[in-house]
């Protein structure tokens, strides 16, 4: 950086500031720069050839006078030490560490909320086997929560335009299909079986990314998916209760959610809408898509009859179950989208796989499923597979 300042002929040496003999009035150090002016076409060139490291104070001892001929005037060279590169690198380290901690908190919260949702969702479906209405209530609850948050100022409302909603539509279609398919699967089979099948989502993600998006992965990445899927399956093999509708529902949900995650990541790029608000808009649009289909497939008459039966069997507690599964569904998805702001779709799918281990273990405990040593072995293999995958990706 080169900057020029015109001033009376001044020599600066060491830490002393001296005026030449022709000047009668000294210039104070603090008023030195403001008092610079042109005189007789002569001036000084202040040269800074290194980035300055600016500290708490700047002493005149950093200046060294350089003699030059009278035509050019005095050349005053400002020397300062260059900031150590390690200081710059060290400054970025805390931000990277903070980002990792932030993502870790997101993942832990996401998994915990998902476990609670799955428990209450299964309780509701056992007593009230209407997955289309249950899925609709989950979306409606989340949409209502966010609309209230925007209206009251708790959360800042997103600024959207028609182009945003247009790009969101395919994401909403995939989200709606995946949500309903997973709920249908869980209404037909055990929680563990649904999540065994859905643990294959990373494989779907890799295949879709490879053949549709043109992304390539090293061989170890593909191989690392085998213990992830196999370990989760082995962990819940004692719960295996095959049902074709439940199996197909979980498979369809896998494929739909992979497309949802990929479309979401693309749609969120360059948008000012945060992950939280993005999922809120997604819920509202998905609710609009799902509601007419839910009415057509099940209908109010079936819902009313089933509600009376559930209330007679469970009592008022059933209302709490429905409310809890709806609220926690929105919360865990909201946190997952906050995570998706920071990670890739494939990493998101791996996080989903680890989340399923938590769900499988918790469902075994809550629903008193007998635990065999093979379950623990399967969980260990799945965790090992996830570690191998992370190493292969690096």
TrEMBL record:
The chain crosses the membrane at residues 103-120, 132-151, 219-238, 244-263, 275-297, 317-333, 373-390. Keywords: Chloroplast, Membrane, Plastid, Transit peptide, Transmembrane, Transmembrane helix, Transport. It is a multi-pass membrane protein. The keyword Transmembrane applies. One of its GO terms (biological process) is transmembrane transport. GO terms for molecular function: antiporter activity; phosphoglycerate transmembrane transporter activity; triose-phosphate transmembrane transporter activity. GO terms for cellular component: chloroplast membrane; Golgi apparatus. NCBIfam families: tpt. This is Sugar phosphate transporter domain-containing protein. It comes from Glycine max.
